[in-house]
Amino acid sequence: MNISVDSVSQKYGSHAVLKNISFEAKSGEVLALLGPNGSGKSTLIKTIADILTPAGGSITIDGADVQKIDRIDRAKMIGYVPQYFHYTPFTTVLDTVLIGRRPYMSWSVSDDDLAAVDQAMATMNITDLSDRFVNELSGGQRQRVFIARALAQDPNFFLFDEPTSSLDLRHQLETVSTMRDIVRKDNSGMIIALHDLNLALRYTDKVLLLKDGEMYDHGAPADVLTPKSLRDVYGVDAEFVENAQGRFILSYAPS
């Protein structure tokens, strides 16, 4: 499955947030959206998810306008995890993850639904939390619950808006690594907004670098993330180091 973003712009009132964004995201690939706060990452994710209507341009899934796809069919195609979660207090983790199966359920929960929920919770290491209320969990635990809900949805494409923002260092690495492995194993696709450049460099196939709502560059992480681009977009100096674990970015305030 391919998601095509063609000359998309977005506004909040009279303020232009996105300007003429074009790219394609493909099955089997993880695409990272990068850029400083206010560069338009979350707005772009919401626009692709059809939460926001584009002010200009179009978004298609395999050639079909995303706004014209039936809501249930679109839910089977796209799993969206927002940056900020809305949840009902005193709802268990199990019930929250089960919500991801709504596009497939009729009047009752099937064995397939329960199996998908069990697998999703096991993948995110939250099986032991299944009977806990979501409002009793830490921010990081809740984040893993909502990622599990998206996994249970079994979509063709994942849209994740800074899914590691509340996670500790270990769970950041595990989550992005796990999602990359799922994308490759299932030939699904993923667009993920990130702040951590090293996660993008290590675990994604392509990056789209945003600056002030415009596309600064798009391509392979090693090609896009350079000392010049980090200086232009983030206003920092940077150097790259390599060791047995891979290539990493060291950034620091400009002299």
UniProtKB/TrEMBL annotation:
<dbReference type="InterPro" id="IPR003439">
    <property type="entry name" value="ABC_transporter-like_ATP-bd"/>
</dbReference>
<dbReference type="InterPro" id="IPR003593">
    <property type="entry name" value="AAA+_ATPase"/>
</dbReference>
<keyword id="KW-1278">Translocase</keyword>
<dbReference type="InterPro" id="IPR017871">
    <property type="entry name" value="ABC_transporter-like_CS"/>
</dbReference>
<dbReference type="GO" id="GO:0015420">
    <property type="term" value="F:ABC-type vitamin B12 transporter activity"/>
</dbReference>
<keyword id="KW-0813">Transport</keyword>
<keyword id="KW-0547">Nucleotide-binding</keyword>
<protein>
    <recommendedName>
        <fullName>Cobalamin import ATP-binding protein BtuD</fullName>
        <ecNumber>7.6.2.8</ecNumber>
    </recommendedName>
</protein>
<comment type="function">
    <text>Required for corrinoid utilization. Probably part of the ABC transporter complex BtuCDF involved in cobalamin (vitamin B12) import. Probably responsible for energy coupling to the transport system.</text>
</comment>
<dbReference type="GO" id="GO:0005524">
    <property type="term" value="F:ATP binding"/>
</dbReference>
<keyword id="KW-0067">ATP-binding</keyword>
<dbReference type="Pfam" id="PF00005">
    <property type="entry name" value="ABC_tran"/>
</dbReference>
<dbReference type="GO" id="GO:0016887">
    <property type="term" value="F:ATP hydrolysis activity"/>
</dbReference>
<dbReference type="InterPro" id="IPR027417">
    <property type="entry name" value="P-loop_NTPase"/>
</dbReference>
<feature type="domain" description="ABC transporter">
    <location>
        <begin position="3"/>
        <end position="237"/>
    </location>
</feature>
